[in-house]
């Protein structure tokens, strides 16, 4: 099922859109502020974002720019209260893919969502996120605090294994097996410890990378 994040501070409109799209088998999470939406994006990516332009804590163009800096291909449709050319231009300049003007027919919004999804595909699986760390799997790009981090092949594979298992403990044995043994490179346990230490240093000692003593490691979102 496609998952959409929707920034909308009007509960009536939000409820109508959510109910309609969920009847079309699209799961919708509604956020009443830009800050709430930003936090949700930092934890897990949807297939698409519907972004109301005028929110209680600011305009949508700033958040759209932030989305584009972090997830270039994530589809964004912005929603404006009037057919104002300056708002529309600002929206596209900030990186939005399409727009809908209020008041809108639910059928029109749905058709725009479907069309954009067909063009862009589901890019949410392209990215892995935990705290300030993000991985773009298509480009094999790792960023921390929105800056690119250069990792060795082993460091990248360790991080990838941990990020794919976010919230679960990954044992040292599993990491050794998946990162080294799968290629026929048999290394001792100390090699993993050194690799994780270097990884932590390059990622500025992230709080989201936890050591489970005598067992392994776990990536988890830190509030």
Which SSEs are present, and which pair or pack?
Elements: E1 2-7, H1 11-23, E2 26-31, H2 34-43, E3 48-52, E4 54-55, E5 58-59, H3 60-70, E6 76-80, H4 85-94, E7 98-101, H5 106-120, E8 127-130, E9 133-136, E10 141-144, E11 147-148, H6 153-164, E12 170-171, H7 172-180, H8 189-202, E13 209-212, E14 216-219
Parallel strand pairs: 1-2, 1-3, 3-6, 6-7
Antiparallel strand pairs: 4-5, 8-9, 9-10, 10-11, 12-14, 13-14
Helix pairs in contact: 3-4, 6-7, 6-8
Polypeptide structure, described:
- By secondary structure, the chain is an alpha/beta fold.
- The protein starts with a strand and ends with a strand.
- The protein folds into two domains: 2-122, Rossmann fold (3-Layer(aba) Sandwich), CATH 3.40.50; 132-219, Winged helix-like DNA-binding domain superfamily/Winged helix DNA-binding domain (Arc Repressor Mutant, subunit A), CATH 1.10.10.10.
- A five-stranded parallel sheet has the order 2-1-3-6-7, with helices on both faces.
- The model has no long low-confidence stretch (mean pLDDT 90).
- It contains eight helices and 14 strands.
C-alpha geometry:
elongated
| Number of separate helices | 8
How many domains? The number is: 2
CATH topology of the largest domain: Rossmann fold
Helix-strand topology string: EHEHEEEHEHEHEEEEHEHHEE
Going by helix content, strand content and strand pairing, the class is alpha/beta
Amino-to-carboxy terminus distance = 27 Å
CATH architecture label name of the largest domain: 3-Layer(aba) Sandwich
Proportion in β-strands: 15-25%
Strand order of the largest sheet: 2-1-3-6-7
Q: Major sheet: size, sense and barrel closure?
A: 5 strands, parallel
As residue ranges, the low-confidence spans are none
The CATH homologous superfamily name of the largest domain equals Response regulator
Helical fraction equals: 40-55%
Rg over CA atoms: 20 Å
> How many strand segments?
14
Overall average pLDDT? 90
Determine and state the CATH class of the largest domain. Answer: Alpha Beta
């Amino acid at each position: 099922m496609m998952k959409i994040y929707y920034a909308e501070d009007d509960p009536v409109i939000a409820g109508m859109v959510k109910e309609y799209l969920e009847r079309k088998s699209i799961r919708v999470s509604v956020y009443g502020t830009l800050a709430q939406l930003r936090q949700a994006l930092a934890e897990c990516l949807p297939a698409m974002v519907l972004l109301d332009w005028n929110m209680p804590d600011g305009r949508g163009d700033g958040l759209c720019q932030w989305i584009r800096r972090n997830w270039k291909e994530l589809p964004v449709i912005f929603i404006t209260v009037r057919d104002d050319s300056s708002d529309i231009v600002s929206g596209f300049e900030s990186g939005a893919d399409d727009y809908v003007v209020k008041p809108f027919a639910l059928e029109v919004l749905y058709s725009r969502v479907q069309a954009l999804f067909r063009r862009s595909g589901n890019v949410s699986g392209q990215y892995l996120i935990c705290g300030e760390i993000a991985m773009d799997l298509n480009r094999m790009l790792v960023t921390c605090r929105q800056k690119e981090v250069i990792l060795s092949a082993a460091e990248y594979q360790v991080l990838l294994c941990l990020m794919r298992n976010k919230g679960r403990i990954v044992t040292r044995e599993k990491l050794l097996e998946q990162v080294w043994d799968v290629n026929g490179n048999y290394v001792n346990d100390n090699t993993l410890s050194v690799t994780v230490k270097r990884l932590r240093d390059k990622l500025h000692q992230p709080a989201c990378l936890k050591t489970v003593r005598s067992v392994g490691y776990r990536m988890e979102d830190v509030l």
